[in-house]
Amino acid sequence: MSITELIIEKVKKLPKPSQVEVLDFVEFIDTKLHRELNESECADYSINNAMRGLESEDDNVYSLSDIKEKYS
Q1: How many domains are contained in the chain?
Q2: Residue 17 lies in a domain
Q3: Rounded to whole angstroms, how far apart are CA atoms 58 and 28?
Q4: I need a surface site. Which of 3, 20, 40, 47 has the fewest CB within 10 A?
Q5: Can you tell me the distance from the alpha carbon of 19 to that of 9, in angstroms, rounded to the nearest whole number?
Q6: What would the DSSP string read from start to end of 15-34?
Q7: In the predicted structure, residue 43 carries a pLDDT above the cut 80
Q8: Whole-number average pLDDT of the chain
Q9: Residue 58 within a domain
Q10: Is residue 65 part of a domain?
Q11: Separation in Å, CA 45 to CA 9, 36, 42, 49, 55
Q12: Which residues constitute the domain of residue 35?
């Protein structure tokens, strides 16, 4: 028996108020999962936008003379 089937069987045995509580919890988990996925996608999108065009730059674009302050 799959996990889904086990959950369904157990939920069927619960009284209606408890079934509503289980549904509320499942919706909470679903919302949380989608929010985390969206945040991850937004972070990837932001990084990709920040790095856009840099892949075509030469590695030696800047020299030591370009640095205004030198740290030792």
Answers
A1: 1
A2: yes
A3: 48
A4: 3
A5: 12
A6: -HHHHHHHHHHHHHHHHHHH
A7: no
A8: 80
A9: no
A10: no
A11: 41, 14, 5, 6, 16
A12: 9-44
